[in-house]
């Protein structure tokens, strides 16, 4: 029986095993099947995700995306844990739509707001989600970008460890995206980096699983090190650009 779940057990197991679960932005419904198939081929848990900006940019409906995900799962019957996650989303109506459509996890991204407002809207989403056994991801700090697909600005502000601990305790959020040096999109002039010391400090102050956004283009050894930090690293790594570039190469649109 195929197992579609929220992120709780998936990320708990990742923390215990000192690895990170890949969270892949399909962006198009046609890429859902390859992601699920790859998870089966590697016997690995995986998260399939879609963001609010991708809904607009790629003109794919939230329910349409969820329906295709569950169709693929029914057809392939994977025996690995899978989750359906709503990535960077600012609009509560879109989050509600995703919950109703069968998403098992959602992300409220209010990171551009002041701390108090970010915490308040995150608590609101947690209150909506938890009674339905849906997990919630939030973001604290500002993760930069190079392609403006996930975020509106390239502004970057590293996550403050003590503020992260307070935020997690106040909101009850299930996992937290932190800004530690990576960026969304393709690395061109700037090079990827990870502030491992900051990650370790955040993990010492909170038990909430941490998420590394902007995983595309980050050398695998850096991702591995971020997941295997003594005392806890990241449990979830987002991949979007690498997946789309691979797809474009296959269809000759590099």
Summarize the structure.
The protein is an alpha/beta fold.
Strand order of the largest sheet: 2-3-4-5-6-8-10-11
* Number of alpha- plus pi-helical segments: 10
Q: What sort of overall outline do the alpha carbons produce when their principal axes are compared?
A: globular
* CA-based gyration radius: 17 Å
Helix content: 40-55%
**In what range is the share of β-strand residues?**
15-25%
What descriptive keywords fit this protein?
single chain; two-stranded parallel sheet; 10 helices
Molecular structure report:
Helix 4 runs parallel beside helix 5 and helix 7 packs parallel to helix 8. It contains ten helices and eleven strands. The chain has an eight-stranded parallel barrel, surrounded by eight helices. It has a two-stranded parallel ribbon with strand order 7-9. It is globular, with a radius of gyration of 17 Å. The protein has 254 residues and is α/β, with parallel strands linked by helices. The model is unreliable at 145-151 (pLDDT under 50).
